[in-house]
Write a structure and sequence with these properties.
This protein has a seven-stranded parallel β-sheet with strand order 3-2-1-4-5-7-11, with helices on both faces. A three-stranded mixed β-sheet has the order 8-10-12. A two-stranded parallel ribbon has the order 6-14. The longest helix has 16 residues. The chain has 15 helices and 14 strands. With 351 residues, it is an alpha/beta fold. The chain has a domain of 242 residues: 3-Layer(aba) Sandwich (Rossmann fold), CATH 3.40.50.720. Strand 1, helix 1 and strand 2 form a beta-alpha-beta unit. InterPro entries: NAD(P)-bd_dom_sf (IPR036291), NAD(P)-dependent_oxidoreduct (IPR051783), NmrA-like (IPR008030). GO terms for molecular function: aldehyde dehydrogenase (NAD+) activity. This is NAD(P)-binding protein.
């Protein structure tokens, strides 16, 4: 391939985006190693933090349409988006019209939406099913559904090849230069320490999950296929469930309780049931309308597309349970998680 290969990573100071950036920069094999990497951040402090990586760092908000357009035009970049899609799709579409080369966008959605508690009415689901058609026909106001539908329609309109990776509950310490821990599990640990008691919901959940290293490995696989111009499911067929295993919440809360009690951070090793969903939302600092889905959802998802690409996750359910103490240590080492990030994600999804 003669033309330059460019990758634009948004959210490059975040948990997922930062870990992807770190992996791409450190890799020495494959097409990514020869690509020009550009990273989007939102503050001068983040620019300083990432400056040592030797990549082109861009400082702007994705809500700034002019800044997004300028970044795409200047860097001729393929893109990877974690919060907003509209401005990127329009800018990529204009870029394609000018240079007449393929452009791509990898969007990160969430698996929680595809559960009964999350509002999904169709039951069990493979990522090879006609998900887009199902979502398009639903008359359910939900920011994730609306963004997923918009992604497919707008990408086709702009001539952009799109992929939608549905992210599960992620755990493990990230490798980026910015935020290194996830949101949900650190919030559960943080609330337990504050209340001196570990809590669970009145209904057990068994949602999809994946270690951050396995999530990054799938993004690498997708990008390698893109850069090598290999045709893989995209657009309305381009849904990928990033599910390495399931997370048994009640069993995990018991593992956290043992860890926290051994460290003297909670009063005892017993797990108590939240008195109400509202109490859980208040303690965890999450939006009350989503707390039930976050704490009790299971969903019958079957990932197919990722494994067809050759994805081979290294972490499984037992490893997840066995390393609960690592999550406690990570929170103690790295400080409080900013659960307000969840509000920003949900707000962005509706714009």
């Amino acid at each position: 391939m003669d033309r330059p290969q460019n990758i634009l990573i948004t959210g490059a100071a975040g948990y997922i985006g930062g870990s992807i950036l770190s992996d791409f920069v450190s890799g020495t094999n494959g097409s990514i190693a020869g690509a020009r990497i550009h990273a989007v951040v939102r503050s001068e402090q983040q620019v300083h933090t990432l400056s040592k990586l030797g990549v082109n760092i861009l400082n702007f908000e994705l809500s700034d349409e002019a800044a997004v357009a300028a970044a795409i035009d200047k860097n001729e970049s393929n893109s990877m988006d974690y919060l907003l899609v509209s401005n990127l799709l329009q800018a990529l579409g204009r870029r394609k019209a000018v240079v007449n080369t393929p452009v791509y966008l990898i969007h990160s959605s969430v698996t929680t939406w595809y559960s009964e508690e999350g509002g999904w009415p169709h039951g069990n689901l493979k990522d090879t099913d006609a998900i887009y058609e199902k979502e398009k026909e639903l008359d359910i106001p939900h920011p994730i559904r609306e963004t997923n539908v918009f992604l497919v329609k707008k990408a086709k309109e702009c001539g952009v090849t799109s992929f939608n990776l549905a992210i599960p509950n992620i755990y493990g310490v990230g490798t980026g230069e910015g935020r290194k821990i996830s949101i949900l599990i650190p919030a559960l640990i943080q609330a337990s320490i504050a209340l001196k008691k570990v809590h669970k919901f009145d209904k057990d959940g068994y949602p999809p999950a994946a270690h951050i290293s396995d999530v990054v490995a799938l993004y690498r696989l997708v990008v390698e296929h893109v850069l090598q111009e290999q045709k893989i499911p995209n657009g309305k067929d381009g849904y990928y469930f990033v599910q390495a295993h399931r997370a048994p919440w009640w069993a995990y809360m018991e593992a956290l309780a043992k860890s926290l009690y051994a460290r003297g951070l909670v009063a005892d090793s017993e797990v108590e049931t939240w008195p109400s969903d509202e109490a859980a939302a208040q303690a965890l600092h999450f939006p009350a309308q989503f707390i039930r889905a976050m704490g009790t959802a299971s969903g019958g998802l079957e990932p197919v597309n990722a494994y067809r690409l050759g994805w081979q996750p290294k972490w499984d359910e037992q490893m997840f349970l066995d390393h609960a103490d690592d999550e406690v240590q990570a929170l103690l080492d790295l400080g409080k998680v900013r659960t307000s990030l969840f509000d920003k994600i949900m707000t962005s999804a509706t714009n």
